[in-house]
Amino acid sequence: RTEVIEAKGHVESEEGTVTTEVTCTENGELTYSCTVCGDALRTEIIEAKGHTESEEGTVTTEVTCTENGELTYSCTVCGDALRTGVIEAKGHSRDENDVCTVCGALFWEELEYEVSGDSVKIKRCWENGAKLSLPKYIAGLPVTGVGEGAFSACTGLYTVYFDGTEAEWSNITVEGGNSPLFLAEMVFELELSSESGITVSTNTATVPKDAVLSVNTVENGNIAISPIPGYDIENAIVYDISLLLNGVKIQPDGAITVCIPVSEGVNGNRYTVFFVDDEGNATPHRTGVENGCFVFETDHFSYYAVIERSLDFDGRIGDLDNDGDVNSVDSNLMKRYLAGVYEILIPESADINGDKDTNSIDSNLIRRYLAGVYEI
Prior knowledge:
Strand content: 25-35%
Number of helices: 4
Radius of gyration: 40 Å
Shape: elongated
Distance between the termini: 148 Å
């Protein structure tokens, strides 16, 4: 005979077996099996808990002075990159020698450059304005190149003043990516001369290429110059200096350097060039003597007079405006002279300590005199 042994049913395991691994983003699976026969009885989901972002990112792109860097924040469980953050570039930090203290970049005004052998290459322009001066030499070395994209950020630039001639510019290698530079109006060093020997030159003003320099000597009596204390106006030499375009007088849009030849045997240091208006009022220009010429700057052409100072100075030391008194007005005029915005009619009056030079020491001495602690 036979006897039936009754099946007792499966005995489920208390702990399931991981049959699909859970990840941060995908659910896993537990399988519960019979402890007797091993049959799979049921499954259970292991829920994904999502990524766990790291508190501190990892630098994946180093920041420079000019280019942003990048931080990447990853999951501390699976290592997946979750997001990126920007490390903002803080720009160059220039010291008193125009060298970046962070990366060592070299600067000339708003131009970043690099030295290669015995020449200079412009790396980048940081000028945000409409006009830019491009030098022919930097740190005593010739500029021979403009790097790729050096002017790509200068979107507002429309005039570039090159400190040289058009022929010299043609020797400079300009790499690609500099369209704003080529869209800009290039202004080269310009020099115009006249039969009188007077010349004008500029590389900071726009002058039409067809402009002509016109110089005429004004005969004595044709223009009456108002008296100038300490100057011999009777023997003044007056020039009518003009720029002509198609016969019409024009004015430059910037500074022009004017050179008037000094006559042989004349001590040029005793002369000053004055602008003379239609009323005969004379305004002095800061005048130097270079290479046998009176040299001064102007942005307006008209009448200019070369006038000699009186042979003897009989005024009062410190009386810069020659009104017979030394006061705060003279102190302010001294400051303006040292700042380059005023020309002293009688230089001897400003040499307070008599050392043949007018400088900050003389300015301090006038202030001390007005304070009652120094005697002129």
